[in-house]
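Workshop exercise sheet. Pairs work together: one partner reads the sequence aloud, the other fills in the structure field after running the prediction. Swap roles for the next sheet.
Pair: D.N. / O.F.
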Amino acid sequence: MLRGDRRGKRLYSWLAAAVLLMMSGPALAAAEAGANLGLTTSWVGFTSIIIFVLAYVLVISEEAIHLKKSKPVMVAAGLIWVLVAMAFATAGDTHSAEEAVRHNLLEFAELFLFLLAAMTYINSMDERGIFGVLRAWLVSRGFSFRGIFWVTGVLSFVISPVADNLTTALLMATVVMAVGAGNHRFVAVSCVNIVVAANAGGAFSPFGDITTLMVWQKGIVQFQEFFVLFIPSVVNWIVPAVIMSFTISGERPDPLDERAELHDGAWVVVGLFIFTIVLAVSFHQFLHLPPVIGMMTGLGILKLYGYFLTNRDRFFPPPSEDDIGQSGLMEETMPDKRKTSDRPPAFNVFKALQRAEWDTLMFFYGIILCVGGLGAIGYLALGSNLMYGDLGPTTANILVGILSAIVDNIPIMFAVLSVLPEMDHGQWLLVTLTAGTGGSLLSVGSAAGVAVMGQARGVYTFVAHLKWTWAIALGYAASIAAHFLVNAGAFQ
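Structure field:
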């Protein structure tokens, strides 16, 4: 407890609550031990907060200083846990810190392996030409500027629940940049629309965003229950989209002739990805196993299929040029005459693994360990009581979304899930919605926004997005109202 007058106590509580939205302890025992030791008001606690804030400032400044976001948080995680372990050891407790770290590592391992499998599938579909064909189809259809605006928005909303909001936003951004080259106004507004649509689409699916995945893996919201957020998510996107569409011209851009080809096995990879999702859901729903087991099993199946594609010529040799009727299987002595030159390079699943977003995956490690260490110090109960006790769950959950536009939504949602405040099902759905869509308020508030800023550098900027924050805020408020209206039965 803080000592001093009520005014000073209140000020400290508010400051601690703001910090807690980026902190939590996965091990309640360690958090209670830290609170009993008074670490929240000690030099250990304050130093740890400073380390984390400095690291996060470097993360936010990634575009300006060109320092990968994983580097500062990984170092900060190590330093924070050194301080925590020293403080516990000084008090004679040599076990709580170790148990808390192991719990953090388990949380990270599940998230890491799940995302690694999903990223590998997305990269494999890209390598087989799925996304290239979609892009070529869009830019060669002869849509008007307004038509492209709506088509890319709809596709962003529809694809992101299955792929993810980051991949979807990058794909659609390349389309608007190809069609609207030279029309900076169109590209900027369309990119805003794509980011909002991708984030909104990802909010009603466990696979659409990291935050929804975390909620699903925690077992708080079941797979099928996410889809009750469909209408609020549509409202979240459609309100700003309608407003922005009035600024888009109905003129037709110059037609583009772009061709793309699917490589062998492209649709099989898509089918295997869908099957892998079914496996993850089934393992979780019916066998009560972590979804990551299903994802990794599906990744293993993809690897086996990759082995088949790579060795297909050995298993089923193509016929020689001279073959009139004899099977190509009889021509193994004439490899120089086989028609192998027309086939694309063999599929290599390990190249898809190499292309995974390793910086993002390591960033998750640093964030989870950082917030875990800060939570072990004892900020858990302090912030939980203020945010979800004094303010109430509705206000707190709305603020979670707003703050996720300033600070990445992943540490915020990790904090909420670690705190596990007493809320009814409707409130858990609300925080899932707000954490997933609140990042759309600013371009830096979501991975999709940051990625598109890099893709459309100098056109889609922080300021270009900020001009439409008022419209996005209207959609954010309308989606919350829609949730209370449509899902009223989920509230107690």
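Discussion prompt: The longest helix spans residues 358-390. What would you look at next?
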